[in-house]
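Bug #77: duplicate submission created two jobs. Keeping one. Sequence:
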Amino acid sequence: MSEAYNTLMSEHRRLSILRALASPDSGGKANDSILHTIVVDHGIGSSRDQIKTALSWLREQELVTLSTLASGTVVATITQRGGDVAAGNTTVPGVQCPSPGK
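Kept job's structure:
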């Protein structure tokens, strides 16, 4: 795959994670396994490692906080800034901008 394609997929993966966490159903948090399922169901092919890498990147941008359970499961919690990005109120390079009305 080309570098441009991989970049595009990473940006969409990050937005999909933020949208999932911003959903009222999630309560603002979800574990990496659930996020993997959601992202793949949105048609963004992803491995569990790619999800964990995206979560680490989102944490570096202060869009989520992360905690790791004793089992090794990573739990992500969306920040206010992350919610703003998911809603399209703020842009962050490296995260796909949401489509209008979505």
